[in-house]
Backbone:
């Protein structure tokens, strides 16, 4: 499983840009893509995002992996819309394709257009989030969330989760490999039983670790809450350049 | 369904074979138009407030509660990233893990946990999305957790054993998620078409994956509950899943 900021390019200047600006920029762009009626703007976003990914030297395999699920869903939606939505006839499809068909699927031109519009919106929006994932380190993302007045309790849980995903993932891999070596996944039934054991063990470890972690944190001064995250002031150039790019994109969106 | 001729001959196999891990459970980024995305955020908001209120209340009496919730959110994240082969669909899918978190921590905290797991998945795995975060919280967090929790409580009050109660809780948590996802998708993508026909079509389209996946998730939840019951029944008492007298010494 390849997750998180493995592909963050530390040497790229975009990574140094304030995460709050990048987040607000992405949210603004997402709102534009979602509210756009047509293909052009979302597809432009896809092209720009893919270009940015290539410029960031993110391996194409990783980019494709990120897009595989949304592509699948977009394709299903196009099929659903073509055959089950719209009025203007595109073609008939007897099932099975012979004289003795059981039923006929009717494809609609307007359904196809609607489906394509949704598909382009999906790909456009996903491309923005994919780029965001490559440009904002998670800790900075959390800091930006706290600046956006997201409740402190939620931010704290997010921090704890992020910290312990890696610890528990390692535990999970150790258990998984041990199970695999003992043919724990040789059949669906055994696999299911092994997987239940694995997840139950993780839950038990979570309980045990939470007690250990709390006592070690108390020793370091933890009193049940994390200190407020400090934010550096915005840089005028970063704000201005972002606003300029967003305005240009906004004009294209309006046209 | 066999398609011969036309471009569909190429399209259909690629639809089935393209993704290694089809996550039908999460609504992908961009599917919902702006107004529907906003609507689901508004629906999710009071439940998130409920979760945060419960978190504050429980962590004021137990200082280890926040780290525990964070750790369990990490477990739910890991569980929901693990692929399970779904033989009927020829793809892999993923459990949601809200059944078990609903049973262990109650629906309010489970909603919070799902929200955290969904946010991390959206940002780093492109599973789900930021704009569909609200909709996914409603489907997976709220409906999944509440369905799992209520089913487990109901069956336990009817003196069902842990295995059956856990199985049904996992099953209904999964199916409730899938049902809500279908409602959200149908309302979001229907355009000018009527809601109900599209809803049924989406529901039927999900059946090959989600029907067996629900059963698998039920079996897994059952296995998890039983194992925790056997190894650490005290934890189930601590989390108020069982009463002390229900635990055999």
Residues:
């Amino acid at each position: 499983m390849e997750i998180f900021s493995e592909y963050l390019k530390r040497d790229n200047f975009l990574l140094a840009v304030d995460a709050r600006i990048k987040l607000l920029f992405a949210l603004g762009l997402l709102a534009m893509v979602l509210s756009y009626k047509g293909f052009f703007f979302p597809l432009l976003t896809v092209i720009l995002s893919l270009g940015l990914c290539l410029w960031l030297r993110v391996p194409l395999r990783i980019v494709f992996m990120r897009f595989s699920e949304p592509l699948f869903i977009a394709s299903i939606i196009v099929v659903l819309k073509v055959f089950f939505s719209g009025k203007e006839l595109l073609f008939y499809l007897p099932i099975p394709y012979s004289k003795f068909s059981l039923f006929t699927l009717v494809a609609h031109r307007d359904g196809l257009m609607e489906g394509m519009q949704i598909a382009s919106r999906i790909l456009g929006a996903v491309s923005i989030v994919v780029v965001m994932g490559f440009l904002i380190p998670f800790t900075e993302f959390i800091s930006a969330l706290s600046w956006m007045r997201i409740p402190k309790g939620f931010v704290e849980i997010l921090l704890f989760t992020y910290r312990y995903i890696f610890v528990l993932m390692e535990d999970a891999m150790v258990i998984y490999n041990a199970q695999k070596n003992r043919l724990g996944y040789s059949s669906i039934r055994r696999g299911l039983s092994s997987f239940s054991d694995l997840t139950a063990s993780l839950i038990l470890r979570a309980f045990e670790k939470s007690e250990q972690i709390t006592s070690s944190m108390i020793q370091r001064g933890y009193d049940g809450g994390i200190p407020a995250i400090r934010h550096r002031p915005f840089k005028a150039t970063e704000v201005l350049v972002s606003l300029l790019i967003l305005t240009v994109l906004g004009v294209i969106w309006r046209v | 369904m066999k398609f011969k001729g036309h471009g569909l001959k190429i399209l259909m196999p690629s639809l089935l074979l393209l993704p290694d891990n089809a996550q039908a459970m999460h609504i992908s980024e961009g599917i919902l138009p702006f107004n529907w995305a906003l609507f689901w955020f508004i629906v999710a908001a009071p439940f998130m407030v409920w979760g945060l209120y419960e978190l504050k209340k429980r962590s004021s009496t137990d200082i280890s509660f926040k780290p525990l919730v964070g750790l369990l959110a990490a477990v739910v994240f890991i569980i929901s990233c693990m692929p399970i082969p779904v033989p009927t669909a020829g793809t892999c899918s993923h459990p949601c893990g809200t059944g078990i978190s609903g049973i262990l921590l109650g629906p309010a905290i489970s909603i919070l946990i799902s929200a955290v797991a969904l946010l991390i998945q959206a940002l780093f795995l492109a599973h789900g999305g930021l704009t569909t975060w609200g909709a996914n919280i409603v489907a997976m967090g709220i409906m999944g957790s509440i369905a799992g929790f209520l089913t487990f409580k109901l069956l336990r009050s009817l003196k069902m054993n842990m295995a059956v109660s856990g199985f049904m809780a996992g099953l209904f948590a999964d199916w409730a998620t899938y049902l809500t996802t279908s409602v959200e998708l149908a309302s979001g993508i229907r355009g000018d078409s009527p809601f109900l026909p599209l809803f049924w079509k989406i529901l039927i389209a999900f059946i090959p994956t989600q029907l067996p996946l629900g059963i698998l998730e039920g079996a897994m939840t059952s296995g998890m509950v039983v194992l925790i019951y056997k190894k650490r029944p005290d934890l189930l008492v601590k989390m108020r899943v069982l009463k002390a007298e229900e635990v055999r010494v």
Chain B is about 70% helix and 0% strand. Residues 1-24 of chain B have pLDDT under 50 and may be disordered. The domain at 30-246 of chain B is CATH 1.10.1760.20 (Arp2/3 complex 21 kDa subunit ARPC3).
